[in-house]
């Protein structure tokens, strides 16, 4: 079992002002961790599978979780229960933890 995950090995994906780099991922894991750089809008989405925790490293984002909207900045944490609509808007670097691990097939866009 691997316990060390060099940063250079992370898979990276980008879309509409969002760049996500996997830090810890894989089907054998019980958690996934990714570093995210947001410059714009992370569109509204719903995870049918994972609870999510966001930790804002740098910057500020307007976060909507369900019907609640608030501003999160450096040092703040946000929890999003699975099946809850959420979105982020702003310019920030943050870490997102998914339990169980992120699975793109369990994601749905939310308007």
Automatic annotation (TrEMBL):
Signal peptide (residue range): none
Gene Ontology molecular function: any one: isomerase activity
Protein name: Mannose-6-phosphate isomerase, cupin superfamily
Gene3D superfamilies on file: Jelly Rolls
Keyword Isomerase in record: yes
Chain ranges of the Cupin type-2 domain: 53-89
Cross-referenced InterPro entries: Cupin_2, RmlC-like_jellyroll, RmlC_Cupin_sf
